[in-house]
Amino acid sequence: MSASSLPPLLLLFLLLPPPSPASPPPSSSSSSSPLPLGVDLEGTPLSHLLLDPRSGVLYVGGVDHLYQLTSDLRVTAHVKTGPQLDSSHCLPPIMVDECPTATPTHNYNKLLLLEEAGPEGNRAEPGSLIVCGTLFQGICEKRSLSNITELLYRTTNPVDTQYVAANQPSISTVGVIISTEGVGPATGRGGSGMRLMLVGRGYTTGPGDIPPITTRRLSPVKPPRRMFSQEDELGKLVVGSYSQYNNHFVKAFVHGKHVYFLFSRRATRPKLEYQTYVSRLCLSDRSFYSYVEMPLSCEGAFKYNLAQGAWLGNHTGSPALFVVMSAGQASTPVATSRTALCVYSMEQLDAMLRRAQEVCYTEAGRQEEVYIAYQVSSKCLKLPKASLVDYPCGGEHTPNPIASTVPLNATPTFTSTTHLSAVATATEAGLTIAFLGDREGTLHKVLVHEDSSGHRYSSVPVHPNSPISADLLLDQTQEHVFVLTHNRLSKVSVSSCEQQTDCNSCLSMSDPYCGWCVLQGRCTRKHECERHLQPNHWLWSFSPTDHCVRVERLQPANQSRDTQTQVTLSVLQLPSLSYSESLSCEFGQLPASPAHITGNTVSCQSPEPRRLQATPPGTDHMILPVAVKFGNVTITTGSMTFYDCGAVSRLNQTSQCLSCVSSVWGCNWCPLDQLCSHSSNCPHHHTILNHKDSEGPSSCPLVYALQSPPLVPMGLSTTVVLLGRNLDIYTDRADYMCVVEGKGVQFNLSASVQKTDDHTHTFTCSAHQFQFEVSELQYSAAVYLRRGQRRIDASPGLTLQLYDCSAGQSDCSQCRAVPPEYGCVWCPGSPAPSCVFNQSCSSAASDTCPPPHITQIVPVTGPLEGGVLITITGSNLGMKFEDVEGGVSVAGVDCVAKAEGYNISTRVVCELQPSGLPTRGPVLIRVGPTASGRSTQEFTYQDPQLLGLVPDKGPVSGGTRLTIRGRQLLTGQASDLQAFLGGQQPCFIVEEVTDSQLVCQTGRSNRTGGVSVSVFFGKAKRMVPNGAFKYMDDPVITRVEPGESYQAGGRVLLVEGSNLDVVQRPLVVVSVEPETQREVKRKRRRQALLNAKQQGFNNSVTTVSELCVLDSPSQMSCPTPKVSPQYKVKGLWFQLDNVRVDYETIKDKKSGSFVYYPNPELYPLNREAPDTPYRFKPGGVIAVEGLHLTRAMSREEVRARLGDQECEVKTLDSTHLYCEPPEAQPNSLDHNDLPTLKVLMGNLEVDLGMVQYDSDSPLPPVPLAAQIGLGAGAAVIILSVLVVILMYRRKSKQALRDYKKVLLQLETLEINVGDQCRKEFTDLMTEMMDLSSDVGGPGVPLLDYKTYAERVFFPGQQGAPLSRQLDLPESRRITVEQGLQQLNNLLNNRLFLTRFIHTLEAQQGFSQRDRGYVASLLTMALHDKLEYFTEVMKSLLQDLVQQYVAKNPKLMLRRTETVVEKMLTNWMSICLYSFLKDVAGEPLYMLYRAIKYQVDKGPVDSVTGKAKRTLNDSHLLREDIEYSAMTLTVLVKNGVEVQHCPVKVLDLDTITQVKDKILDQVYKGAPFSQRPAADSLDLEWRSGQAGHLTLSDDDVTAVVQGRWKRINTLQHYKVPDGATVALIPRCSAGNGVSQVFQTGEKTPMLEGEEEEGLRLWHLVKSSEDPEIPKHRKSSMRERERAKAIPEIYLTRLLSMKGTLQKFVDDVFVAILSTKRPPPIAVRFFFDFLDDMAEKHGIDDPETVHIWKTNSLPLRFWVNILKNPQFVLDVQVTDSIDAVLSVIAQTFIDSCTTSEHKVGRDSPVNKLLYAREIPRYKQLVERYYSDIHSAASGCYQEMNSTLTELSGSFASEMNTLVALHELYKYINKYYDQVIMALEEDSSGQKMQLAYRLQQVAALVENKVTDL
Fold this sequence. Notes:
The protein is an alpha+beta fold. The strands form 25 sheets. Strands 15, 16, 17, 18, 19, 23, 24 and 25 form an 8-stranded mixed sheet that branches. The protein has an 8-stranded mixed sheet with strand order 61-63-66-65-64-67-68-62, with no helix packed on it.
C-alpha cells in the first residue's frame, strides 16, 4: 500500500511525531521508587502484545489502533483500524442501503501473530504481521513487519470461510502458526510445505457456525485458494452443538511435535461444572485424527477451575506449563479474585494424553475413563495394542476426538486474593522465577521451589488500578518484562537490583537475581560482578548465610575535635585484595586517608582538627561517617563522634561550669579563663575536672539560693539577698552586681558581699521598686550574680516571684480570695476601690465585701421537679465555694450550689430543687453576713406538657422525624432537653425547639414493636400520653420498573415491596458528577495533577432527588429526578428514612444498573415549515416522527395534549407516535388562535406546532356588500348554467348526473380509505403491542420438531409413520427387527439406495403420491445420517439436472414429480427448522395474529367463509350488512375464584364463532392444541331471573324461509351488549338439566322432521334468493346499485392490505434479508446449483434464478406461508387461509424473473400488490446475489451442521416403522428391484441382491434362492 493511496488526514497523522514515553507518576505503593518506563497508547483496552525475537520490535493491538515500537518503547508506526461502518448482523462488504443496522463500530484486536520470513528473506515466504479484529465478521490482514502501515494483504470481499476471529469483544480468540514440516512454529525453513494458522475461538452468533478450532491457509495461496480460508482438506474440530461447547480459549502454543490449546468450558461429564482443559494435536495432522483433551485440576483452599493466563517455561530443568487459575463463582464462568499459580509438567501432561489415546484405541474407553467428545458420532474401539505406536497421530480408522475424564492434578504454587491475570517465567541460577500480573496493575515476582511451592518476594506497581493483559513477554536478553495494561505499555526489569543503592537494601530483597558486588559497590546480577567467584566479593541476596561487610567495632568511638588520633576498625567479611591494592578511610566529606590492613582490622588516622567542619549550631558534637573505601567504592561504613567542649559551655550560659563538668564527653572547666576544655590543664592553672575524675559540679563557683523571700510585690521598694559558694578562687578586685531579668527588661543592682566562716558568701542587692505590665497576679523573673564581666553560675530554677494584687482581681471577693502570703487587701480609697498590696493602701483595708450583684441567670424557666442547672453570673459572689454553699434560692426554693461550676466571685452554678406548684420569683444569693444579692430577672417554675406525636411508626433502622406537640416545651435550656424512645433509645433533636413543638429523629433500634416516647427536662420526665411509637420492620424493595429514564426525568418508577408505609419521607436519589471529571480521569496526564483534580471533583459529586408518593403499604411511585446533560449518572438509590436501598441490590429489576438516556428527539409536525399549522382531517390520527422515543418510555406513560384536550396516544415505537385527537378542534391554551400539540414524556414537554382541522363548516360571516355581490354573481351563473343545461336532452342530463354521483362517491371513498387505513393500523398496532408482550411471555407457539416434521413430511395424513408403533406379533418381532436393521444397513449403501429409487420410479404403478411417501420414509430412516442423506440427494439431483438439461432446464424442480424432489423439500425443512424457530417464526406468528384480529373485527359468513375484511376478492363479503360490536362478560373459573373477562364479539356472530372468540381471549397466548375444542363446550347465557339459557347454532328456534334455514346468531337470541355468558362442558343428552328454557343442542333438533331439503345460510345465501321478504323489498334499489359498482367494496381490500402491510414486510424481510447470515443450508444448496449450472454450461442467469426459486421459495417458503399450522400451533380458518393465499401468491410473483405487468383485466389480487412486488423482487435478487458473492467453501460448515442435526432430532424419528413401510414397497416391486441389483456389476460385487434376499427372508419368511 503506497503512501499516495492513503487518505490525506491519515497521511498527516502518520507524519506526526510519535507519542513520547509517559513520565511515570509517583508510585502509590510503599516503595518510593518511581513507576517503570512506560508509554501511553490510544486504543483502550489494549489487548495484545507481540515481540519479534529477531529484531526486538514490539507490536501492540488495541481497540481501533495498532502500534509498532522499539524495545525502548519509542513508537515508530501507528495505524488506525477503526471505527468503521459495520454490523454483526451483516456480511461484508457493508453497504449502507443493504445493511440499515450498520453503524460506526469499534475494531477490537483479537489476534496478533508473527509470521516469520523464510531463510535469508526468502521471497516466497516473506515475514508478516497477522492482525485479526472483530470488524467484518473477524477477518484478518497481513502487514509488513518493518512498517505496519504497509498493508500486504486484506480482502475487500471476504467469503464466509475467511471469517477467522470472534466478532464480539468478549469472546476469546487464540492462534498459532505452524508449517507442514511439523517441526514447530512456522520458521520458514524449507520452501515446499504449507504454512498454516490454527485458530481457537469461542462461540458467537455469527455467519454460520464456526468450529472451536479451525485450520487456516497462509501460504502458498494460488487461485481458487484464499488466504486465511478454512478449506475442506484442512482440519477442524467438528462439534455437535456449538453453543454447548462454548470454549473460552486462553492460550495456544507449540511444544515438540504438537500444538496445544488451553481453554475452559462447562464439562459434559461427570459433573456439569466449569473446568479448564488442555487439548493436543500433532503438527502434521491435517485431519484432527490426533485430537485429545483432558481437564486440569488445581485445588487448595479453593478449587481453581478457570484459566486466566498461561506460559510454557522450564521448571527444575524440564518443560512445564504455568497456568494462572481462578476460582469460579459457583457454577458459572465468572472468575472471582481468588486466583492461584499452578504448575504442570509437560512430561506428565503428554503421558496422560497418550494414556487417554491408548485407552480409547485399545480398551474401548474403559468405563468412561475416556469418551468421544463434542457429540461426534464415533466411539472408542478395541484396536491392536500397538495402534498408538503405529499411529501416534491417529488415522481414518481411529476414534476421535478423544476426551479424558481423568484430570492432571496440581496444588497451587502461589495464591492471591487480587485477581491474577498473566504469567511469564524465567530461570536464574537454576531457580524458576514466575512473573504474575494482576488486575490492579501490579507485577508480582514469585520464586517457584523444586517442590512446586512458591513465595512472593517482590511486587512492582506498574500501572495502578489498570488490569494487566495476559500477554506478558520477556525480551530477548531475559532482562526485562514487557507489561501491557489498559492504555499503557511498560518495560519492567526482571530485577530491581539497580534500584538498591546500599548493601542492606540489596540483600533484604531476597531476590534470586540480585547480590551485592562489594568492590563495585553495586547491587548487581552475579555475572555483572567481576570477582563473583572469590569469597566475600559478591553477596547473594537470596542466600541466608551472606551478610553485608560491616564494622563490628571502632576505636575510639568518641574523640575531641581539637586532637588527632589513630582509628582502628574491626571489619567482618572483608573481601581479599591483591598485593598491589589498598583501602582508604574517609571521614565524612573530608579527603580519604590511607588505611593499613591487618587481617580483618583496618587502621587509619583521624582528620586534622583544622579540616573538621564547624560544630552544628545548637549542639556540642557531630557524628561523622567513617567509610572504608576501595578506590571510589565504599565497602563498609562506621561512625565516629567528634565533640566540642567549648560548645558545651556556650549552650548553657546560666551554668557554664556545671554543664561543662557534667557533660558525657569528659570536659574540664577553667574558672579563671571561663573556658570549657578537653584538656586537664588550664592556662591559669586552676582546673575543675570532670565529674568522672573528681568532685566535679560541687567545686563550681555558684549562687545556689535566695536568702530573702522569693515573693516580691510590684511597686514597692524591695531588697534581694543571694547566697553563693566556691567564690574564693576569684582574687581580682572586680565588683559584684545583681541582675534581674523579665519581660525583656533587665535590672542591674549593685551588691554588697559578706563572707561567712563556712566559705559561704552573702550578697545583698540594693533596694529597688520593680514594675512590669502584667495581666496575671504573679510573674517569674530570673536572678543571677555577675562579677565584673564574668557571670557566676546560678542554680537552675533560681527566680524571683514578682506579683501585682490589682492584676485580675476586679472586686472585693476576688481580692480577699488571694492567698494571705501575698498580702493583698481590698482598699476602699479613691479614686475607686481596688485590690492592692497591704502596705500600699492609704486608708484602712475593708474587712467585709459589698453584697452580691447578679447580672444574669440562665435559664429563666425550669420544671416543677427541678433537676436542671441554673447558672448565675455577677460579682462579689463569694471568695470561695463555701461562702455561697447553702445561700442560693430560686423563686423562693433553695438551689443546691455545685462546686464544679463555681468561679470565685463571678459565677455560681446550682441545681434546681422541686417546687410543688408553678411559681415565679427572683434569684437570691447570700454571702456570709452581708446582705443578699437579688436578680432583676425572675425565674419561673412551670409544668411542661406533651400532647401527641406524629408519625406513630417508623423503620427499625431509624431516620423518622418525630414531631412532638406540647405546651411550655421551652423549659430549662436546650441542652437540658432530651427525647427517648422506650426509655433508652435516644431521639436526636434536629430542629430548634419552640414552646409548642419539638422535632427529633429516631435512631436505630435492635427490635421491632411499640415503645413509649418520653422527653426529659433536666431530670423531669414527661411521657407522650397514648402515644406509643411503633418500630416496624425496615422497608424492603423487591421490584422496580422500569430500569431507565430520560435525562429530563419525571418518569414514574413503580416500586414494589413491603412496609413502605413506615417511611416518612421516601426519596429516589441519583448521584451525578460532571462529565469533565470523566475526561480528566481518562487522560491521567500527571499523577499529582490528577490527585488534585480528583479531590476537587469528589467535592463536585452531587445528588439530585425527588420525593416518592406512597400508593399503598406495598407500592409507591417515584418520579425520576432530572439530570443535566453535562452530568454523568453514578448511581441511583432509594432513601427510605435511614434505610438506603441501592438499585443494584434489588432482585426484580429490568437491568443491572439504572440507565439515564439522552432526551428523545421529537420533530415538528411540519418539519419544512414549523410555523405553518399542520392540516388535520377529523377522524384520522396524527403521526409524530422522532428518534429514540421508546428508549425510556412506553405508550402508556406518554401524554399528548392538543390545546385544552387530550390527544389519545394509540401507538408508540422508536420513531413514531400516533395519537387520536378529538373529533372537534380543541381550544387553544395560549394567545394563538389554533391549538398546539404538546407531547409530555415525564418532565419533558415538547411543542410540536399548531394544528388546524380541515372542516366542512360554513365560512366566517361575509360582509353585506360582499354578500350582495356574490348573490348577484351567483344568480348570473345559475341562469347561464340553466340555459346550457336546457340545451341537452333529458336523458343525457340524467346520465351526467348519475356519473357525477359516482365520481363523488369514488372520490369520497378514496379519501376515506387512507384515513381508515391509518385508524385501522393504529388499532391493530395497539393490539399487536399487547400481543408482543404475550410473545415475550409464553413465547411464540412453535410446534415441537416431531410434530413439525410429521406435518411437513406427511401433509394431511392421519396416523403418519412418525406417530405409529411397529405392529407385529411378539413371536416375530425380534426376527423382523433384525431384518429391518439389515435393510437399514443396505440403505446406507449409496449404490443400493440409488438403484432402489430409480427402479421404483421406473414402475408405472408407482404414483406421484407414492414417490412423496417413499421420500419421506427415506428421510425418516436416514435422519441420523444426514450427511449421507445429503450426498445421496445431491447424486440424485445431478441425475435430475442431466435429464432436464437435455429437455428444458427451466422446468426443473417446478413440481414434486420425483422422489428426490420430495427429499429436497424434506431436507430444506430439516435444515431450516432452527431458522424458523429463531428468526422467521415470530414475524410469521405476528402476521397470523394480525390477520386473525382484522378478520374477526368484521362479520365472517360461517357457511361461505366470506369476510368483510380480507385480501381475497373471491372471499370478500360484498353485501352491505349492518352489524354492531358487543362486549360480553364471560365468567371464567380460576381455581375457586370466578373472574369476569370481557370479550369483544359481533351481534351477527354465530354461536360457534362466539365460542371461538371467547376461547381466543381466555386462552390468549396458549397453543391451540392445549385449549378445549369449541364443540366440546356449550355457551350459556345467564340473564337475571330468566335462568341459564344454552345458545346453539341450530335449534327449534331457528328461522326457516322456504328451503333456507338461517344459523342462529346473538342477534337472533336478542343477547344485549354487556350480557353475562359462560362456557360449560357439553353434557350428554341423558342428563337432566333444570332450566327455565331448555333449548340448544341438548334437545333433539326438529324432532322427526326431515331436513334434507333445507339449505343453511348465515349472512348471505350462496345463490340467488328464491324469495325476498316484504320488509326487504324497500332496499332493492340500493342493492342493485351495489351490484352495479361492486368495485366500491374492493376498497375494503385496500384497507386490509394497508393495515397488514407492515407485518407482510416483516415476514418477507425475515425470509430474504442478508443482514444476518443466510442459513447455511441455503448457501450450501445455492452453491450446489451454481456448480451444476457451471458444470453443464448453463450461463443463462434466469435459469439458475428459476432453479433457486423452485428449490427454496416455492418449495419451502410458500408452503409455510400458506400453512403456518405446519410450524405454529394455531388454527387456520377458511377466511384466514384466503388471506394467506394472496400473500403467498405475492411471494411467488416476487420470485419470478418475468416483468410484473398489470392492466385493467388483471386479477384484483395482483393489482393489490402491484406497487410492492417490484420492491420484493429487489429483495429476492439481492438475496440471491449476496449468497452468490459469498462464494463457496461452506461444505465443512454444512457437514458440521448436519452432524449436529443428526444427533439432535434422530431420536424422534420412528426408524423401524419407516423401514417397515419401505419394505412394503420392496415387497411390491420385489422382482424388479432384485433384477436391477443383479444387473449392476458393482452391485454384484457387493452382493446387494443377496443381502436384500436375506432381508426378505427375515422380515416375512419370503422364500428366496438362498
